[in-house]
Amino acid sequence: MNDRMHALRVVLQSMWNRAGGRYALIMMGLWLLVSAVSLAWTPYSLLATDGFNTWGSPSSAHLLGTDGVGADVLSWLMAGSRTNLMIAVLTVAVSAAFGLLLVAAMVSRHGAFSSVSVVVVDALISIPTVLVALILSVPFGASAVVIVAACGFAYGLNLARILRPSALLAARSAYVESAIWSGAGPIRVFFTHIVPNTLPVLSVQLSMSAGTSLLAEAGLTYLGVGVGAGVPSWGHSLATSVRFISIHPLAVVWPGLVVTLVVIALNLFGDALRDAIDPL
After folding, report:
1. How confident is the model over 144-162, as pLDDT tens digits?
2. Distance between the two ends of the chain, CA-based, in angstroms?
3. Which residue from 209, 266, 210, 260 is spatially nearest to 234, judged by alpha carbons?
4. Alpha carbon 25 to chain centroid distance?
5. At 72, phi and psi to the nearest 5?
6. For residue 72, what are the β-bridge partners?
7. Which pTM does this prediction carry?
8. pLDDT single digits (tens) 120-137
9. Which residues pair with 66 in a beta bridge?
């Protein structure tokens, strides 16, 4: 346990020593803090509206102004941080589980099964994420489930394709052969010897998946198959204000700026984590 904590401190210190890693850690910390605070407090209730103060400019009463129904923009962005955090975490979990399952099949020692798995992944990866989301929206309706499932499916396929070369190299290595001859099962070999060799690439791809899921949430919500109406999210704030961008451009700036800053932080987080894990 102490060794793991020491290793974690070393990785975090290495990330902090890099400008990109420092920015990423600060932004991740702020995101988590705002999400936690919004569980108990927001400047205004999400149901509070003021019909006499629609599209209000930033003021002492409303730091980021109000939207088209007079709701406080800051309150909705704070509450939306929870939804987007949930979507990002679940997308990473689903894409990692699905992607690693495919990698295990693609580097299988059964040649025919491995070859078929590669062909299947190459075929499925051509299916657009939007199409998957539209299909899933029929039984599930507009919800975060659609976003997580569609993104997890698409990003898992992409993850498998990118991880296959390094995983295949590890699977054919001498130490894996030794582990197999010593009696280690395929599951143990995969997670003990193969997956660790893909961690530098895996960390970057998963952080990119988290960032891309935020962009997908905004796009799918705009199309009407993302989060449901009335559910706070950054994509919802963008979708409800983008129609009035020529009249009230500031209303689009705030949610767009938040999404941009967090996506950049997630991408830099993956790069910094990769450099910390594998300095060479």
Report:
1. 999 999 999 999 999 999 9
2. 26
3. 260
4. 15
5. -70, 120
6. 66
7. 0.92
8. 999 999 999 999 999 999
9. 72
In angstroms, the CA 266 to CA 86 distance is 14
Say if CB 276 and CB 14 are below 8 A apart.
yes
CB atoms within 10 A of CB 118: 17
How far is the C-alpha of 56 from the C-alpha of 28, rounded, in Å? 29
**CA-to-CA dists, residue 15 to 4, 64, 202, 267, angstroms:** 17, 32, 17, 13
Q: Is the pLDDT of residue 280 over 60?
A: no
| All residues at 6 or more sequence positions from 184 whose CB lies less than 8 Å from its CB, including other chains | 192
Cα atoms in the Cβ-side hemisphere of radius 13 Å centred on 121: 26
Q: Kindly write down the DSSP assignment for every residue of 197-248, as one continuous string.
A: GGHHHHHHHHHHHHHHHHHHHHHHHHHTSSSPTT---HHHHHHHHGGGTTT-
Task: Tell me which amino acid residue 175 is.
Answer: Y
